[in-house]
Amino acid sequence: MKILLTGKTGQVGYHLERSLQGLGEVIALNSSQMNLEDLDQVRATIRQVKPDLIVNPAAYTAVDLAEREPALAMRINGEAPGVMAEEAKSLGAAMIHYSTDYVFDGRKQGAYTEADSPNPQNVYGSSKLAGEQAVQAAGIPHLILRTSWVYGMHGKNFLRTVMRLAQERDELRIVADQFGAPTWSRTIADTTAHIVARLQASANPRSAGIVRDSWDQFAGVYHLTAQGHTTWYGFTKAILNHSSILKKPLVTPIRSDEYPLPARRPSNSVLSCERLIDNFCGLPGWEKALGLCQE
Ligand SMILES: NC(=O)c1ccc[n+]([C@@H]2O[C@H](COP(=O)([O-])OP(=O)(O)OC[C@H]3O[C@@H](n4cnc5c(N)ncnc54)[C@H](OP(=O)(O)O)[C@@H]3O)[C@@H](O)[C@H]2O)c1
């Protein structure tokens, strides 16, 4: 099986390039090899590579900047995945696409399931929802994996920001009224690889191509996050507890309106992952995964 992986420099893409090895030939690309802003280049690259499976973690992820660059966010997050899905259709390929908790408005009491209606509150969330819809509309075997609050030791993320600020400041004032599940990028990649292995399990390891029946049977949206939930404040306290750094600043909880940002965030973006757990595999608790990441 030939796997085309986008965004290999990203948090999730970095681990996917490693986790997908052994499931097939992985052709991992960065943004200069395939720029999602250039839809013709996306088409041409896929036609040249002829993958059996496209795995697309590449995205415009600058949530606040997206408010000022809505057209660019929509091209990368909304249109490019649609082009990938169309190309996958003509090749008879499958696609795994990643999406976000920010497709929800945060007003629900309790965890969001895949049956809940999205209602994004910011440009980033709207562009990601457009990408989901474009992939679904293509009528190909696909998985859309919605995740949340991604962190890891690679790339730009909340964990690394807290570790840096802890060295620079005596006090960190952190939002304590938004609830979600911090998810290690490696958990997302390893779970993805596990799912692909399960879907391909009936294939002759030497045979090329996807096992169409099992992909069709399990196609759709799944929530994929660490289990349990916390706030950014709780996440910060846990990061500092697990960390070996000696200097630990005071952490003060604040409300979202005390830290205004250009993009509105949902106050509750906890996702229920029961569908994925029932169909494929378990997921780690957020604090356990954080401990492993910081080991
Ligand atoms: N980060 C989060 O907290 C979070 C939360 C929920 C869902 N998600 C979703 O999870 C997925 C993975 O996110 P992540 O945190 O791994 O993202 P990330 O670390 O921000 O990486 C984004 C990746 O996309 C690539 N990219 C950006 N613009 C591109 C373009 N024009 N053409 C080609 N590639 C481009 C980047 O390449 P360069 O390095 O070359 O720019 C990078 O490899 C995304 O679908 C994201 O929407 C993320």
Molecular structure report:
By secondary structure, the chain is α/β, with parallel strands linked by helices. It has one domain: NAD(P)-binding Rossmann-like Domain (Rossmann fold), CATH 3.40.50.720. The protein is built from 10 helices and 12 strands. The protein has a 6-stranded parallel beta sheet, sandwiched between helices. A two-stranded parallel sheet has the order 6-9. Strands 7-12 form a two-stranded parallel ribbon. α1 (11-19) links the parallel β1 and β2. The radius of gyration is 19 Å and the shape is globular. The two termini are 34 Å apart. Bound molecules: NADP nicotinamide-adenine-dinucleotide phosphate.
What are its keywords?
alpha/beta; 10 helices; 295 residues; two-stranded parallel ribbon; six-stranded parallel β-sheet; binds NADP nicotinamide-adenine-dinucleotide phosphate; 16% strand; Rossmann fold
